[in-house]
Write a structure and sequence with these properties.
The protein contains three helices and four strands. It has 114 residues and is mostly helical. A two-stranded antiparallel ribbon has the order 1-2. Strands 3-4 form a two-stranded antiparallel ribbon. The chain crosses the membrane at residues 94-113.
Length: 114
């Protein structure tokens, strides 16, 4: 016995979530109708430790780890501003860290050349 399968060209159907969700930032319960869905907040420490661990354990997966798309998580709409501020702060921390690494690598080379 076979079951007919229909496919639509309009794209995948949206996922329906029943029940209660919790905000990924505050942990506060929210309803699925009012949830704001966005990628998870990744801290600079999480990014650096994941990069180093993957670099030493499985360097071939580094591209997937850094460039792979993460599934969206629910946030309370009331914390959108706080989420944006936290993302900006984490980006600033990462920028400062990368500039420090660049300075540690470039300054000794410049001193040797001059």
């Amino acid at each position: 016995m076979s079951v007919p399968v229909t496919t639509s060209s309009s794209g995948p159907s949206p996922t329906v979530i029943k029940g209660e969700l919790h905000c990924a930032l505050t942990g506060k319960p929210i309803s699925p109708e009012h949830a704001y869905w966005a990628p998870p907040l990744i801290t600079t420490r999480q990014l650096i430790t994941t990069f180093v661990q993957t670099l030493f354990t499985n360097p071939g997966a580094l591209g997937e780890v850094l460039l792979g798309e993460l599934p969206n998580v629910p946030y309370d709409p009331a914390v959108c501003q706080e989420l944006g501020n936290r993302r900006t702060a984490e980006q600033l921390k990462l920028l400062v860290f990368l500039l420090m690494i660049a300075a540690v690598l470039i300054v000794p080379m410049m001193l040797i050349v001059w």
